[in-house]
Design a protein that fits this description.
2 copies of one chain form a homodimer.
Chain A: H1 8-17, E1 24-25, E2 47-49, H2 54-67, E3 71-74, E4 91-94, E5 101-105, E6 110-113, H3 119-128, E7 131-132, H4 144-150, H5 157-160, E8 167-173, E9 179-183, H6 195-199, E10 208-215, E11 217-218, E12 222-230, H7 233-244, E13 252-257, H8 258-268, E14 279-287, H9 290-306, E15 313-314, H10 318-329, H11 331-337, E16 342-345, H12 354-368, E17 371-377, E18 382-388, H13 394-414, H14 430-436, H15 439-452
Parallel strand pairs in A: 2-4, 3-4
Antiparallel strand pairs in A: 1-2, 5-6, 6-10, 7-11, 8-9, 8-10, 12-14, 12-15, 13-14, 13-17, 16-18, 17-18
Helix pairs in contact in A: 8-11, 12-13
Keywords (chains A, B): FAD, Flavoprotein, Oxidoreductase
Cofactor (chains A, B): FAD
Pfam family, one (chains A, B): FAD-oxidase_C
Chain lengths: ~475, ~475
């Protein structure tokens, strides 16, 4: 691959498309545009373009296509695998100003948004209207475009599924600049190959999402959580398949250990409601009334106690509910605050293999000499594990990180799992996807990439590309 | 495209792969193998192969690839658009003997099946185990391979979604004979392009499904239906968005008119529980107890009455429940029995446009001079409309059919709808997909086809191919 070197003439041409110097950044580009949240890979763009309309995205893309300039899309930059880092410099397409909620359709229960709308804005908007967008990743300041691009899942996947399940229609600008509409405000579709789902989770390698029609649900009126201490983590996790197979499907089943809870307490300066155990399950139920939810969780509380739980604490006040979930929401930042630098893996394994996977992390930690912390979605097998630098040198950290990740990803594959449950592959995990995935599978992905992007100008070096 | 003419040598070669003359049919091939359920397109295969294992599918496919012979996969042949008709003759791969349920995984709530397992067999098996596979197309003798290949939806899509939402993993034999595994027993996945969803709904054009891991749910213990007569169909359908936006999401919302009900009564020789109106909504609720379901449907019954319903009949006995759904299940056969020949459209439109679409059918019927009957899934906008030959000549029927379909598909597109909600495009609807879909979209589909099947030997002339 070789791309045209970006020059002042190109800058002038982009200014002809977007006639606003505040939206075409060239001379002074903030450092943040060169990396994402985790920052393990960094590369500055030549220019940052901040479109407000699909037409602007299309015109910029067409210019880049005609002139062979690499283009990388970026939302809020909250990613953890470098998917929005412009490895070949070129144009960074920052869609954060495309932040309008375009429509609420009551009859079809959909909302139409531009890609830069934040998850927290969708949350506020739907709540105001008595509606509900179930995907619930921890990072509420992420854009919906980013969530769709990684097929983010979050905590409510046990009951409701992931982002993919709530995208009815996408408008996408192809590398050629052509604008494509995929899907529709329809519930069923058997009309040709499913290109919409190909875009979802493609991490900006096939097209730039410029509009999305999201499926909404009527909002449940009430949420109640159960905090369940267990003597051991193994007992806690062994109980999860029984919970999920019961009549009453919780919206979330999280596991957490005391050390991560203590980090969160310190980070928030607030006490967690319980300290009696080293291991907890956190279950959440929703419904239309307290009575309805009680009928759901009561047999599950009994089931937990029969499976060895020490107690079942019901969050029957909003205060307690908030304190538990605030702690849960702070885990990532709390762990980050406890060390000098870190990287993460977000493997997903079958629910039945969560214990095997969780038990393997301390083994790796000991073998490699790398402090690791883990928490995550026991109900859906998606485990977030953090590898901490502490006082290691950068070189030593990188070395041990590579060794630890190789062990973890191969173990996940052995257990029928995959590299990423929701954070994506981006740049940082490409080698591990290649190591654990069949060559035939990778070749098909490359063939599809070639079909969408024959010049390979869109987000090169990401996900599956050599 | 030109394919090798199939000879006796090829037959002998296939017998070397599958050493069983009962599973390689050459001299005497039943007429049924040349068409599907509707039979509007017909073409006999040169040979029928009936594999029992993935290895056999792979070896046959590799032979076909090396020798440039067209291959078409077939399940139970219950399709309605000619997707399993071997237009270029060649090899028909009948997977109906791959009919084993391979595993029930209680911890992950999945079952693993071969593609030839029938929907009714999955229903019986899951019921025995207190589990539930929600996709519920009317045709229970269809194979799961066929259901996945068309992304069939059925009646429960309002609450549970479609087949796509319940496929965790697929094993697929590519045109080259290579075997690929996509997805896994995992709930979340953000590990590269979503090839699994590309296979789902691809109607056998990209690969042959040889194994599927299906997501199951705990079975609801109780089902109750509401039969709701309205003065007019328009009032009935206008009520649907209000029902779906309420707190209590029904599993199904069907609409039906008296003339179709009368056809069904005659076909079944049994009376329908109500005759007071020309138009009905049929709602179905599920849950774990009668009390729970009552709490759900009671506000909906009130809502229907406020919206003009004449009555709300609760199917509080199994007998009444059976009589209603038996009638609903017989609609297709009953209409078929009322005429000499027919064809169908299964357009899907946004829920808000169902009335517009339904009101258009009598206009088309009158304009073209073709009797039409319609029923379907009001809750998900998927309308099944039948165009009846009666005493028209074959030539005249074909002529009017083409005119009527063109009008209907263009109207659907105008309303934001798509050609097919669940029956697929196959051979019969290709022209209409091409007419109503963007060229860029079609070109991408063709490019993907080329990546998977560079020799175009797998199910040629189907869906999007020229």
């Amino acid at each position: 691959m070789s791309y045209k070197a970006f020059t002042n003439d190109d800058y002038q041409a982009l200014l002809n498309i977007i006639d606003d110097k505040d939206r075409v950044l060239y001379d002074e580009i903030q450092e943040e545009y060169g990396h994402d949240e985790l920052g393990s890979v960094s590369c500055p763009p030549d220019v940052v373009v901040r479109p407000k309309t699909t037409a602007e995205v299309s015109d910029v893309m067409k210019y880049a296509y005609d002139n062979n300039i690499a283009v990388t899309a970026r939302g809020a930059g909250t990613g953890l695998v470098g998917a929005c880092v412009p490895i070949e410099h070129g144009i960074l397409m920052d869609v954060s100003l495309m932040n309008q909620i375009l429509e609420l359709d009551d009859d079809n229960l959909t909302m139409t948004v531009q890609p830069g709308v934040l998850l927290m804005e969708i949350g506020d908007f739907t709540e105001e209207h008595g509606l509900f967008f179930p995907p619930d990743p921890g990072e509420k300041s992420a854009t919906i475009g980013g969530n769709i691009s990684t097929n983010a899942g979050g905590m409510r996947a046990v009951k409701y599924g992931v982002t993919r399940d709530f995208v009815r229609e996408l408008e996408v600008v192809l590398p050629s600049g052509k604008v494509l509409t995929l899907g529709g405000k329809v519930v069923k579709n058997s009309s040709g190959l499913d290109l919409k789902d190909l875009i979802i989770g493609s991490e900006g390698t096939l097209g730039i999402i410029t509009k999305a029609v999201l499926k909404l649900l009527p909002a449940p009126k009430k949420v109640i959580s159960l905090l369940v201490p267990f003597p051991t983590l193994r007992q806690a996790i062994d109980t999860v398949p029984k919970i999920v197979a019961s009549e009453s499907v919780p919206i979330a089943v999280e596991f957490m250990e005391k050390d991560v809870i203590l980090d969160a307490e310190e980070y928030l300066g607030k006490k967690f409601p319980d300290h009696q155990s080293d291991a907890y399950l956190l279950l959440r139920y929703d419904g239309n009334s307290t009575e309805e939810i009680e009928a759901e969780y009561e047999p599950i509380a009994d089931l937990c106690l029969e499976s060895g739980a020490l107690d079942v604490l019901i969050s029957d006040t909003q205060e307690r509910e908030d304190s538990i979930w605030k702690a849960r929401g702070a885990f990532l930042e709390a762990i980050k605050g406890s060390t000098t630098d870190m990287d993460e893996v977000d493997t997903v394994v079958p629910r039945s293999q969560v214990n095997e996977m969780v038990a393997y992390f301390p083994e790796v930690s000991k073998k490699i000499g790398l402090r690791m912390k883990c928490f995550g979605h026991a109900g859906d097998g998606n485990l977030h594990t953090y590898m901490l630098k502490d006082d290691l040198s950068s070189e030593e950290f990188q070395l041990r990180l590579g060794q630890a990740m190789t062990l973890v990803y191969h173990k996940a594959a052995e257990l029928g799992g995959l590299v990423s449950g929701e954070h994506g592959i981006g740049y940082a995990k490409r080698a591990y996807l290649e190591e654990t995935m069949d060559d035939v599978n990778l070749e098909l992905m490359q063939g599809i990439k070639q079909t969408f992007d024959p010049k390979n100008i869109l987000n090169p070096h990401k996900v599956f590309q050599s």
